[in-house]
Design brief:
Helix content: 40-55%
Structural class: alpha/beta
Shape: globular
Number of strands: 12
Number of domains: 2
Length: 357
Amino acid sequence: MRNKDNNLKTIKDLLQNQNEKPIFLFGNGINIYNDGTNNDEICWNKLINSIANHENSENIQIVNSSLIERYEFLLLDKFLNSELNKDALDIRTEKEISNKFLDDIESKIEDINSISKQNFLEVLKKYKINALTTNFEYKYLDSSNYSYQSKDTIISSNDTTNKIIRFSSYYPINVHYRLSENSKIYFPHGIFKMKDSIKLSFHNYLKTIEYFRKLLPQYTFEKKRNETKSDYLENLQLKFKSSWLFDFFTKDIIIFGLGLGQDELFLRWLFIERYRFNNLYSSNNYIDVVPNPNVKTYYINFNNENNINELKDNNKIENKIKKNVFFESLGIHEINFSNYSDFYKDLFNELLKDDTK
C-alpha cells in the first residue's frame, strides 16, 4: 500500500506542476485492461497471428520474430504464393494486406469505450495535459463529441507573417482531438480515419524516420547557424514547434500501456534523438526552441503475477534485459505498480477526486 501511495504522489506531483506540465504517451494496454478484465485477445501478437490464420500463412507464426518481422513475413508469404505478375505486385500486395490487417484490428478494438478510457480522458482535461497515443482508434473520442482537427495549421512566425503548416495524410504531425482548450490527443503512428497514415512495415518506418529527421532541431538549427536564413529552414522550425514533436522534445513524458520494445523503431529512435538533443545540444543557441532541456521520462511497469510467469520464457527474459539496457542508457525511470487495477482503476479514480473536499 505504501508503494501504491508513493506512486500516486509521484504522478500527481508531476501532473500538478504548473511550470512544466508533462505529457502522456500510451498504447494498447488501455484496451487490454478493460474495466477489471484482462482482454489479451486484442494484444498485437494475437491480432497479427489471427490475420496470418486468415491468409493461411505459417511463416507468420515464428515465435522469436518481432511484430514487424512477422508482418513482413506475411507480406513475403503472400508475394511468393501469388500467381499475379510479381514485377508489379509489391505495392499492391502490401496495400491489400495492410488494409485487411487494419480492418481486422478496427473491428476488434474500435468500439472499446471502457470506463478506464473515459476516466483517463477526464484526467487529461482536469490537469490540462496533452497525450500521444500509438493506438489508431478514435470512435471513443467521437462518441464524446470531442473536436477532430486535421486541417492545415496557420501560425505566426517571428516576422509576424502568418505561415501555413501543410497537412499530410501520410505524415499527420498536426492531427489531433481537442478535449479542451488545454488538452489534446495526438496520433504519431496514424489514425483509422486515414489508413495511409498508419505505419506497419520496415519500409513505412524508415520513410517516417527520414521525414522526421528533417524536422528535428539538432539538424535544422545547426544548419541555420552555418547557412543563410531561408524560408525552407524557417518552415521546418515552425513545423517542429506547431506539432506534437515540440511536446515530445520539451516536456516530461509518462508512458503506460506501451511495450516500447524493439518493434517500436520510430519511437525508440525519437527517444534517442530526444536524449541526444537535451544532453548534447542544449545551449543558449537553442534556449528559445527547447525551454526545458532537462526533461525526464517515466515508464509505468507492472509487477503482476502474469508478467512474472511470462518472464519464465527465455525469449521474454532476453527482451526484458534489452529493454532495461535501453531504459538505463536513456535515463528512463520505472514506476512499478503491483497490478493493472492499481493503475488503470485506482490511480485514475484517485486523480479525479475533488481535492477541495
